């Protein structure tokens, strides 16, 4: 039989990729020892469809568009593909018996490639001896799922790029759309969860789903539901876990023009923004009452747009606003359902106007646009080193034979102008 009619086979795996036309050649599929078929296409298959007779079948009804949530299907498709690749037991008396899996979409370019890349990344992160995972398929398998099997794994876990390169060795035209690439990178940043529960409980996934719901609300010109807002200070992470998560999010290569609105927690401002996050050891406090407003790990860094007029050089002047993620003290204001409004100091005895918010975005004085925008006026807050940071600084100063602690006051606190003048006068009178 002409090999040109066979589906493309991923190197090292009995895993095939093709378009919808592959189903019109069931004899070819049987020749390739394919036992399982994954259809990633929004198509209504008739009950008992002739081309699928004799095959285990998983249907993933999705369109090939940027905002289709293909990530939610990865645990299910991984389990199904893994079951298919180990469908027949590998026994000494029957080494020749093999099984294979065909993953197809309409053209074998985007959706099917995404499902295969997700599987390649997942299997490359599993122990060398693993038990066959459970599948949602109602069909029984001749293999004993309780028996662990040896799988051939690459020396290091595959990334999105290396898995895509491997698949392109078999089918050079594969090209997942930008939304699917984004979701694959999220899956990689999460460590490729195995189960649906692990996926849906992961912070990256929860934030992404919340931001999708926010986007849906804004597209209909309404404020998002409170349940869909991620209040970052309510997450019960340790500092190390939060820093690791932030690093994973910042490493995502999200180049789509609307990624800021689609996922404000992952990409906020321009895609070329590489501004490092501020140190989490700095706190923002209301200049009037000294109430804690935010820690600096809740600050959203941003840059002026690349097309900004170079003649308007204000690089020496700091931005007029500091942009934050939504925080729990904003709840009462956001619960009113407005698309924009004022932000007041959360101290009920103070209530000073310290900034503003707009779900559809705010433009900074530097020209940068942050969506959604929760902006605190820089002149309304002081940037103060945290108590833990000051303690470490004092220990370091003592170890270095530094002078009295009072000599480090100006390094520890950014004082209001009146207090700075008083401190300067007092120091001059010593």
UniProtKB/TrEMBL annotation:
| Residue stretches of biased makeup (Acidic residues) | 233-242
| SMART domains from the UniProt entry | DSPc, PTPc_motif
Look up the domain of life of the source. Eukaryota
Q: Where is the Tyrosine-protein phosphatase domain?
A: 6-193
Task: Tell me the Pfam families matching this sequence.
Answer: DSPc
Renumbered residue ranges of the record's region Disordered: 130-156, 231-280, 392-430
Composition bias of kind Polar residues appears in 256-266
Name the record gives this protein: protein-tyrosine-phosphatase
Q: State the species of origin.
A: Exophiala sideris
């Amino acid at each position: 039989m002409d090999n040109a009619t066979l589906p493309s086979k991923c190197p090292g795996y009995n895993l095939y990729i093709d378009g919808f036309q592959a189903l019109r050649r069931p004899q070819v599929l049987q020749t390739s020892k394919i036992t399982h078929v994954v259809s990633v296409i929004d198509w209504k298959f008739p009950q008992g469809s002739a081309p699928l007779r004799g095959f285990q079948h998983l249907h993933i009804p999705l369109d090939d568009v940027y905002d289709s949530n293909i990530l939610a299907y990865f645990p299910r498709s991984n389990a199904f593909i893994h079951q298919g690749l180990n469908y027949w037991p590998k026994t000494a008396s029957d080494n020749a018996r093999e099984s294979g899996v065909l993953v197809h979409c309409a053209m074998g370019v985007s959706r099917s490639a995404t499902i295969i890349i997700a599987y390649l990344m997942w299997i490359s992160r599993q122990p060398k001896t693993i038990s066959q995972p459970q599948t949602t398929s109602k069909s029984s398998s001749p293999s004993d799922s309780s028996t662990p099997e040896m799988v051939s794994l690459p020396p290091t876990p595959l990334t999105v790029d290396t898995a895509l390169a491997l698949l392109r060795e078999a089918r050079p035209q594969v090209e997942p759309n930008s939304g699917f690439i984004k979701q694959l990178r999220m899956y990689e940043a999460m460590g490729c969860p195995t189960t649906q529960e692990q996926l849906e409980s992961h912070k990256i996934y929860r934030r992404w789903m919340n931001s999708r719901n926010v986007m849906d609300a804004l597209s209909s010109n309404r404020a998002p539901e409170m349940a869909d807002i991620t209040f970052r200070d309510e997450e019960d992470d340790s500092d190390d876990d939060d820093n690791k998560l932030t690093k994973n999010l910042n490493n995502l290569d999200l180049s789509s023009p609307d990624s800021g609105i689609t996922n404000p927690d992952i990409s906020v401002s321009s895609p070329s923004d590489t501004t490092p996050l501020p140190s989490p050891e700095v706190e923002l406090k209301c200049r009037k009452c000294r109430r804690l407003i935010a820690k600096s790990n809740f600050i959203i860094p941003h840059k002026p747009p690349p097309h900004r007029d170079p003649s308007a050089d204000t690089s020496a002047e700091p931005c007029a606003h500091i942009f934050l993620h939504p925080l729990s003290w904003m709840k009462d204001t956001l619960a009113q359902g407005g698309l924009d409004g004022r932000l007041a100091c959360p101290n009920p005895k103070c209530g000073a106007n310290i900034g503003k918010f707009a779900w559809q975005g705010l433009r900074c004085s530097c020209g940068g646009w942050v969506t959604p925008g929760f902006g605190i006026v820089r002149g309304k807050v002081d940037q103060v080193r945290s108590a833990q940071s000051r303690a470490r600084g004092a220990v370091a100063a003592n170890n270095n034979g530094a002078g009295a602690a009072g000599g480090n006051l100006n390094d520890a606190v950014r004082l209001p102008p009146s207090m700075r003048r008083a401190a300067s006068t007092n120091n001059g009178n010593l």
